[in-house]
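User: Can you predict the 3D structure for this chain?
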Amino acid sequence: MLNVKPLDKRDYELIKGAEEVIEKNYRYERHHIGSAIRTTSGNVFSAVHVEANVGRITVCGEAMALGKAISEGEHEFETIVAVAHPHPHEDIEKCWVVAPCGMCRELISDYGKDTDVIISYNGELVKCNVMELLPEKYTSDIE
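Assistant: Here is the predicted structure, written as structure tokens:
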């Protein structure tokens, strides 16, 4: 069972930022995930995932948002979210929050073990610490 926290106004704004970036840049078979990350200074960086014909080299939206923030000099992270945009053949009208994949969980935790992740859990949107999603994380830290 996850230790979850309710969302606040700023979290819903973060979700909106992820929705806006993917709604603006959605392209079938190219970009269908949008992500937004808020730094501890309050700045928000949004990005889309970059699809590749060879799936292994696709770059997730969370990694793109994280890289965008780091490229702008931000290195302390508070909260991250990813949303999926419906494809034309799907009978879905709006974006929805998706949990980060395993590689993104590793990446997010590598750059901020205190970072919260917004997910859908038991039918509601909540946030939890990334380490809750990655028990027994591999690390090179000597304890």
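The beta strands are 33-39, 44-48, 77-84, 96-98, 116-121, 124-129. The domain at 9-133 is CATH 3.40.140.10 (Cytidine Deaminase; domain 2).
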